[in-house]
Known about the structure:
FAD/NAD(P)-binding domain, D-Amino Acid Oxidase, Chain A, domain 2, 3 domains
Amino acid sequence: MVKDLTTDVLVIGAGPAGSMTAKWAAKSGARVVMIEKRQEIGSPVRCGEGMSKEWLKEVGVTPSSRWINVEVEGARIFSPSEKVLEINEKHAGNEVGYVVERDGFDKQLAIDAGNAGVDVMLKTAATGIVRENGRIVGVTAKAFGEPFTIRAAVTIGADGFESQVGRWAGLPTNLQLRDMDSCLQYRMTNVDCDVRYCDFYLGKVAPGGYVWVFPKGDGLANVGIGVQLSQIKSPAEARTYLDAWIAKHPAYAKGKKIDMVGGGVSICAPIKQTVTDGFMLVGDAARMIDPLTGGGIANGCIAGKICGEVAAKAVHAGDASKEFLQAYEKGWRVRLEEKLYRNWLAKEKLCSLSDETFDKVVDALEGVKLEKLTVHNILKAVHTKYPEVTREFEAFL
Length: 397
């Protein structure tokens, strides 16, 4: 029989955001328990496995060949007519830098958390929130099917895109169809991919999203798609679009599928509240996924460090009130909110562009050396060749 537990900080979910939160709470002197509903951290993989690298030092992660497959030079963006825009890694956004083994990466973050003193409980799922006098003081849970209670001064929801604990806590995490992508990805072998680049294909091949090719090594790549739910009839259509794209590209049509993963991601504007008395929400559960790229690893880890440090401070101060936890709310917003909101605005506009306009934008940028990849610099370059296109962006600007 599993005994009831009491701890300083409880983290629900052992993905990157959860492990990072737990690690930094423990490093800051708190007793931490992290629970994970699955029996293996990092599996099954539900990720394109591409990520940037400049943020790793900020959160205390050392790059390792144990989880890095490929270090790419940059990204290539393909217009609907497949004009190509090359962007170096420095300017290519938060999907480019490394292509990783995501299960290995997640396990490494959990190892780091364990080494910092975090107690990890596998096959343990939260089943409800425990409140006293209106304040969240822990959760009911099941470990290997046996019910018990975990009490904590601070409870943190890091249970991913499909987060239940955020809803249980009363935080506003509901999404509209326009703010969700349905994603599907194959791992394919015997393909002709360029290991120097992560590739992105825009336009009607992926309504409201894009097709991606992330190289995992010579002849091996993740080939996936994200499509906006409001632009398709059912999530299953993602596979139809991806199969159609593969069939039209001989370099991939000859490949063999050896793995398939699917799922959803949020592409919404930053939510209005991520804390309440005794509780914080972090990572994909807090809708911190980049609305433009669909990438959430970096944002979840950066916010996780802030979340863990604030949780420990709340424990030491004996104050886990909503007011005290505002330090986390303010901290992650200062670091991430402006870019998230700008990218949401850009996503809203890009989803409305025609294939013809995408072609013109990429054509105008082809061969142009941009010192810095900003909206202003991009539009300036496009305006020189296609002034009529920039008029479509007036509302965004």
